[in-house]
Amino acid sequence: MSPEAAERLLRPCLDIDRWVRVLIEDRPYARVADLVETARRAADPFSEAEIEAALAHHPRIGERATGDSAEAALSRSEQSGVVTDEDVQRRLQEGNQAYEQRFGRVFLIQAAGRSAEEILASLQSRLRNDEETERSIVADQLREIAILRLAGVVSP
Length: 156
Description:
The chain is mostly helical. It has one domain (3-154): UraD-like. 63% of the residues lie in helices and 0% in strands. It contains eight helices and no strands. It has helices at residues 3-10, 17-25, 32-42, 48-55, 70-78, 86-103, 116-126, 131-154. Helix 2 packs antiparallel against helix 3. It is elongated, with a radius of gyration of 16 Å.
């Protein structure tokens, strides 16, 4: 696979230049597990600027990503379990607004396999965090999302 094709495959998983570059430069990988381990190492730590850049691509939890990009399709798939009743949807919207006011960024959680109620409970709990704790959680969630997406695109 050419470096350009590898970049097209990797970038929807996590649109952070350094992360993508490391994964491309360290090729070839003998096993998928080796690629995933390299991805995990390259993601630890992310800089504040990298986290903020990556968050710019994430829709609010409970809102469907728009567009026809691979990243938007991944986000729609990950949030497929967040379809819920009007009350929970309203509380998610209110929680998103409160989170953005408190922390100045979109609430990020690895949503795949989680119900709207689980996500709402996490959102409400995380609103009590201080900035440093929340920054660490966001970085962890970003890594989880990237690794999950990567495993999904490279596994048969």
